[in-house]
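User: Please fill in residues for this 149-position structure.
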């Protein structure tokens, strides 16, 4: 990859003008977007569960098959500049924050310089979630959590 990270690019360029390397660097590695979500059919309100996608390495908070995630998990929605503005992403998500005109949080690895800071801040899903594997769909409701948003 020939692209490089331009100095404090997240403050200087809109999401649509980031190069691929900058785009990837924006992800804080929290893993929250990989939690199963439930939507209330009447109100459209969305609820996060503590059930992680089967492809998520919960300890690392990273997708095990990032390159072909869309084919392995058809429901996996890729974050793009347009999608980042949607409220389905967790409020802490760097893409959503920037799409809404906010800045990066102090625990974001681009600010702290340390990829572990997102875990230390308690923002990542590490140690807080379980895999969806083996959980019946009818039981998803029992796993709704309120610490995401
Ligand atoms: S919620 Fe946003 S910052 Fe966190 S892992 Fe997902 S895309 Fe990355
Ligand atoms: S396929 Fe990967 S990126 Fe997509 S939701 Fe699952 S763990 Fe997350």
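Assistant: Residues filled in for all 149 positions:
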């Amino acid at each position: 990859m020939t692209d490089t990270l331009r100095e404090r690019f997240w403050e200087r360029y809109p999401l649509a003008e980031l190069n691929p390397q900058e785009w990837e660097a924006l992800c804080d590695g929290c893993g929250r977007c990989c939690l199963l979500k439930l939507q209330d059919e009447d109100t459209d309100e969305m609820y996060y569960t503590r059930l992680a996608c089967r492809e998520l390495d919960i300890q690392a908070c990273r997708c095990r098959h990032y390159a072909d995630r869309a084919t392995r998990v058809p429901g996996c929605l890729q974050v793009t500049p347009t999608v980042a503005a949607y409220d389905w992403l967790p409020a802490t998500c760097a893409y959503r924050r920037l799409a809404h005109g906010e800045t990066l949080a102090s625990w974001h690895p681009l600010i702290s310089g340390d990829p572990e800071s997102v875990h230390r801040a308690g923002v990542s899903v590490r140690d807080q979630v379980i895999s969806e594997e083996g959980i019946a769909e009818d039981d998803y409701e029992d796993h709704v959590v309120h610490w995401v948003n």
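For context: Helices lie at 9-12, 20-26, 69-72, 94-99, 109-112, 117-120.
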